[in-house]
Amino acid sequence: ATPSVCETPRMAREITKIGVIGLGTMGAGIVEVCARSGFEVVGIEMNAEAVERGRGHLENSTGRAVSRGKMTEEDQKTLLGRVTTTDDMSALADCGLVIEAVPERLDIKRDVFGKLDDIVAEDAILATNTSSLSVTDIATATRYPSRVVGFHFFNPAPVQKLVEIIATVITAPDVLDDVRAIAARLGKEPVIVGDQAGFIANRLLLAYLNRAVVMYENKYASREDIDAAMVLGCGLPMGPLALLDLIGLDVAYAVLDTIYKEGRDKLHAPAPMLKHMISAGLLGRKTGRGFYTYE
Ligand code: CAA
After folding, report:
1. Is the pTM of this model over 0.90?
2. Where do the domains of the chain lie?
């Protein structure tokens, strides 16, 4: 349950403004979560076109809530008014927390964190939404790695209650406390986990999703039957192949590959079909086709 105001943990830092870098599926969702909870938000993308696309995600998602009668047009306007979107990273200067949600590549993430170092205040918290990369390897791109933490949301971010907070061996305790407090203010339930590839949820989930792809690849059952078995037999909200389409096959592959390289457990060796589908541009919902086809 969402804690009441008096239960909300106190923060050492008074954070009112949150920056989000990368406005893809996850980044835009995180912006929405933060703005819904009353924070001022600065959303960053790399160029004007990507900024526009990111803003579009946000408008569509909140627009859907309005058309379903879950939000008034007035509230949508207020929410959108809290969000500034730009391709200028210097707009992050007065953010007390910055959440990075750029593509799952260590070189790109380290580059972003290196740049952030010169923009934000020394005590600002720098968080990464990485699904599987080492938070420690990202943190060492900065001058103050003790203020870097993993803050991992689940897709769709406005819906899923969980956030994984990843503490490295060098993350400062007050940083962890403040991120926990922010999670509560965002209406999320945090779990704390060490810096091991895949953290808790993806380490367990992706092994299962990978087995589903192998089953489909080997023509053991149809995609509909594999998905129906898990929805109707196990009470899951969606089947594994539909879920892979939601997560994005490229993201799923990147997570599996990182976990596999760390532990060499063949459960995580990415199914060859995943690679073929990615090469063919079948990334799931975001490209209109994955295991299924979308409008
Ligand atoms: N943004 C905002 N809200 C959304 C949304 C989105 N993208 N998608 C759905 N919703 C909201 C709907 O508005 C609706 O809200 P109300 O109940 O207030 O009306 C609610 O979610 C339910 O949506 P629907 O009725 O359209 O559909 P549903 O009941 O079938 O639920 C689902 C859709 C939420 C996606 C559900 O099927 C689900 O939870 N699936 C499992 C998703 C999952 O496992 N995610 C984790 C993936 S792993 C990951 O993300 C980590 C990683 O690093 C790879």
Report:
1. yes
2. 5-194, 201-287
